[in-house]
Amino acid sequence: MTDQLPEDQSNSTGLFNGLPQHETFVQMQQLYNVTTMQPSAKPLTFSKGVGATLPTTYEFDGRTRNLYSLLGSTHTSALLVLKSGQIEIEEYWLTGNVDAQWISMSVAKSFVSALVGIAQDEGLIESLEDTMERYVPLLQGTAYAGVRIKDVLQMSSGARWNEDYSDPESEIFRLSVANSGGSFDEFMKTMVSEREAGTFCRYNSADTQALGMLIAGATGRSLTQYMQEKLFQPLGMEHAGHWITDVHGREMAYAGLLMTARDFAKFGELYRLKGTWQEQQIVPADYVAASTRASSPHTQPNKPFVGDHVFGPGYGYQWWIPEAGNNTFAAIGVYNQFIFVDPDRETVIVKLSANPAYGTTDQEEDNKDNENLAALL
């Protein structure tokens, strides 16, 4: 689950170096160029349920483990549990609080997917079978030319993707510094093909960046403007949100969304309710269903590649599908950010974290992606 932020303009700690990050993740809007989405004109505050107690243990890798140890070791800032649309658990630690706008990392990818579905429903995108350059001429001559929107949603564009952070020629390294006087769009023009599209699922942040460009090209509005209208306003977001941008104002669609835990939870609740919110269909129900299942052979559990290894869950349209035989799905970002949705139990869980060991190795014992999923399940 690797992402990378642009080069830090404030010369602060940087990422994947083992240092604490909870002070940084709560002030990104002061460290980077951002655009802003305003709170809804009709903000919605979740009601409180009867209250619940966190379990103390969970099972992972054949052992019973302590939940509070996991929360502590991953520097959890916020843990919010909704049951049937009511807050049952809401806990904050470290720099977390009700007003804290936390960095999404790749949780942002699922928001971008939702906006693609909305644009299709409005007829601004005619079909997911359309190729990317129909809406984004800038992508002509790149890895995305001739590639279906559906394949990009499924992280199956076939674009070359190297996640070696020590190699200045790698795609992830060049994307990570794209806003240091450069541009995300200029980076995207350098993307080349490696495989046939629609045959192999490789987790690739450039695919989501391309989808952000698609939304802007199809709607004639920026990602920020479209999300303000289609998600922030109708979902009753209580706090402002931000997108990190490059110096030209292009949003970092793959990771750069800043929101509060409660507002992240509203998005999870929207998907639990199959795209319906207060009797209004925000995201088409059939698009939500397609987004939250692994529908192609190459997106099934234990098929998607992250970096140079297989990651257990399957993949939908920018949503992860845990391999357990249930209807759960999750938006996941590095440093253990989660929006976990369990429709059968009418539950949404938001976990915002700053796991200091994340990315220091490629080992599960440090990154804890699978272990967190096990605890949430």
Biggest sheet layout: 5 strands, antiparallel
Q: What would the principal axes of the Cα set say about the shape?
A: globular
What is the tally of helical segments? 13
Nearest-angstrom radius of gyration? Answer: 19 Å
Adjacency order of strands in the biggest sheet: 5-4-17-16-15
The portion of residues forming beta strands comes to: 15-25%
How would you name the oligomeric state of the polypeptide chains in this document? single chain
Quick check: average pLDDT? 93
The topology string of helices and strands comes to: HHEEEHEEEHHHHHHEEHEEHEEEEEEEHH
Helix content: 25-40%
Class inferred from helices and paired strands: alpha+beta
Uncertain parts:
7-13
- Cα distance, first to last residue? 18 Å
Q: How many β-strand stretches?
A: 17
SSE blueprint:
Elements: H1 22-25, H2 28-31, E1 34-37, E2 57-60, E3 63-66, H3 67-73, E4 78-83, E5 86-92, E6 102-103, H4 108-121, H5 149-153, H6 171-176, H7 184-188, H8 205-219, H9 223-232, E7 241-244, E8 257-259, H10 261-272, E9 276-277, E10 280-281, H11 285-291, E11 305-306, E12 309-310, E13 314-315, E14 320-321, E15 329-333, E16 337-342, E17 347-352, H12 364-367, H13 369-376
Antiparallel strand pairs: 1-7, 2-3, 4-5, 4-17, 6-8, 7-8, 9-10, 11-12, 13-14, 15-16, 16-17
Helix pairs in contact: 4-8
